[in-house]
Design a protein that fits this description.
By secondary structure, the chain is α/β, with parallel strands linked by helices. It has two domains: 2-112 and 224-267, Rossmann fold (3-Layer(aba) Sandwich); 116-221, 3-Layer(aba) Sandwich (Rossmann fold), CATH 3.40.50.1860. The chain is built from twelve helices and nine strands. The protein has a five-stranded parallel sheet with strand order 4-3-1-2-9, sandwiched between helices. Helix 10 (207-214) links the parallel strand 7 (195-198) and strand 8. The structure holds D-glutamic acid.
């Protein structure tokens, strides 16, 4: 079983791709919507929540954890790996054996990757835009990736101000959604970006509104398909096989109505 989590419903954009690529799997998804958004929270706060959610998902039976949140990947994946991933560390081994009641001695994590590389390779204008949370834009992983590509192209960035709130309230289209989205997207278009990286898993749910604002000729890159491929490769490498029919369970720390609606609208095959 694979556990997937996010600060809210955004990680469903990753679950959607995972279900497309590995349709015979068993999945349990956790939305931490009682504490959403994570974007401006401290790394220590996000680490603590990510630890609690990981342990909850493992108790539900998860063998692999997908951190379907760019912000939590930036703030907490190293911390999670240091606590749970190296079975040659006796403390880690004991901790995971206790947690899994002897089922396994380490946990595997898959995180989000900022899709700067495909954007840099695909841009024709030489300008790429990155939309993400403040936490992701400050993270060392993003800064390193950006450094690797900033010679070949210009990278313009903007926080998707208010985007997470729109998705959490289920307001994906309409005049208000358009006004909120335009305020963060327009500066990237004005900078000449022809390729926009969606650096937060909530943002793909606003694609229709973003495309209406940007018009044709602007490409949006969602890293979810690449993350699903990495999960599939990792499962093959670890000899984890999933057979049978697709099963998905949704859990949340707050109200579940919007999560269920987004799931039914966008994810359920
Ligand atoms: N879905 C998120 C991400 O990918 C978290 C957004 C937030 O909670 O601010 O970054």
């Amino acid at each position: 079983m694979t556990g997937i989590f996010d600060s809210g419903a955004g990680g469903l954009s990753v679950l959607r791709e995972i279900c497309r690529q590995i349709p015979s799997g068993e999945y349990v998804y956790f939305s931490d919507n009682a504490h959403c958004p994570y974007g401006e929270k401290s790394p220590a706060y996000i680490q603590e929540h990510s630890r609690e959610i990981t342990e909850r998902l493992v108790r539900e039976g998860a063998q692999i954890i997908v951190v379907a949140c760019n912000t939590a990947t930036a703030a907490a994946i190293q911390y999670l790996r240091s606590r749970y991933s190296d079975p040659s560390d006796p403390q880690v081994r004991r901790r995971v054996l206790d947690l899994t009641e002897g089922r396994q001695d380490h946990l595997l994590f898959v995180g989000m990757e900022p899709a700067v590389k495909p954007a840099a390779l695909g841009t024709r204008s030489g300008v790429i835009g990155v939309l993400a949370t403040a936490g992701t834009l400050k993270g060392s992983k993003y800064l390193t990736t950006k450094g690797n590509y900033s010679d070949g192209c210009t990278i313009a960035e903007h926080v998707g101000q208010g985007f997470v709130e729109l998705v959490e309230s289920g307001e994906l289209t309409g005049p208000h959604a358009e006004e909120v989205v335009r305020a963060s997207l327009q500066p990237l278009l004005d900078a000449g970006a022809d390729t926009i990286v969606l650096g937060c898993t909530h943002y793909p749910f606003l694609l229709e509104t973003m495309q209406a604002i940007a018009g044709p000729g602007i490409r949006f890159i969602d890293p979810a398909p690449a993350v699903a491929r990495r999960l599939s490769d990792l499962m093959a490498r670890e000899g984890i096989t999933q057979t049978g029919s697709l099963s998905v369970r949704l859990l949340s720390s707050g109200p579940s109505e919007n999560l269920e609606q987004l799931y039914l609208r966008f994810v359920r095959p």
